[in-house]
Amino acid sequence: MKGIVFDIQRFCVHDGPGIRTTLFLKGCPLHCDWCCNPESQRRFPQPLYDEAKCIGCGSCAEVCTRGAISLKPAYHIAVKICRDCESHACVEECYGEALSLAGRTYTVEELLETVERDQGFYQFSKGGLTLSGGEALMQTDFAVELLRQSKERGIHTALETCSACPWESIRRTIPYVDVYLCDVKHTDPEKLKAETGGNAEEILGHIRKLRKSGAYIIGRIPVIPGFNDKAEEIAAIGRFFLESDIGEVQLLAFHRMGEPKYRKIFREQRPRKRQALTGEEMQERVELLQALGLQASMG
Ligand code: SF4
Ligand code: SF4
After folding, report:
1. Which ligand is nearest to the CA of 90?
2. Model confidence over 22-54: pLDDT tens digits?
């Protein structure tokens, strides 16, 4: 079985317990404007453009038989057209390496071979494999097979999910996941819909149902300036976790490290209305969640 992965990171310490290998699968049902991996959102491999390396030779546009690339008035790739492109000839042709490909097809066996290299570290640290994205369950069959075969090989498994996918996709992972990392970005349906395209009723419902099935869940809250960073918004998410019988919650601090990638995929980011919370303010939010009775920490 094959799937599309856009990054493989070994020795991760923030994607579940212990030392882990994290596989980032391509595709996401949401379109969060703060995503630090915006190249993850489309389901298919896509070219990334680095303006600083481009010499303007035009070879990429010449070899693209679909006419996806224009050089004037400014360099642009109509990435939607790249869906189902098998050659990625533009990337091959670019001598200056201004173009690279986000997303590559792997077999389950190829990936698990990489994951197994660090078995010693997993055993020593109680770590293992984490599937992330994008949203790993956009490739449900592939994700389930990765998880199933990992368990067969005695590897601890974690699945990071936005839960905005069909319940059947989530249900199929239950026998093979040791810990779920479930993001909740907002409890207000209108705000969530407007900023991410997500359906709050569906997402929160799936997390409740998953917990009721006996799954171990760590709740995660990415704290986004001007979207969900007010104390009352964080508290509302905290209360949702508490009421869902999820006791462990991690706050994820906002950062801007993904911003240069937006230019590489020809996408504009909306300016954020407020500055990110300071370390002190983040700590106040952690303490707020602790006061509610949650085991809260910075993730
Ligand atoms: S990925 Fe394929 S369709 Fe897209 S620009 Fe390159 S050659 Fe053209
Ligand atoms: S082939 Fe590479 S260097 Fe030449 S125009 Fe295209 S992106 Fe720029």
Report:
1. 1
2. 999 999 999 999 999 999 999 999 999 999 999
Ligand 1 pocket member 82 (CB < 6 A): yes
For residue 139, what are its two tokens? 């490739």
Mean pLDDT of 200-223: 98
Residue 267 corresponds to which tokens in the numbers above?
């996408």
Q: What is the CATH number of the domain that holds 79?
A: 3.30.70.20
The rounded Cα 277 to chain-centroid distance in angstroms is 22
| Rounded Cα gap, residues 111 and 161, in angstroms | 19
Q: For residue 65, give the ligand 1 atom closest to its CA.
A: 8
Do 287 and 259 belong to one domain? yes
- 178 and 229 in a single domain? The answer is yes
What's the rounded Cα separation, in Å, for the pair 181 and 216? Answer: 9
CATH code of residue 206: 3.20.20.70
Q: Are residues 61 and 38 in the same domain?
A: no
Distance 59 CA to ligand 2 centre (A): 6
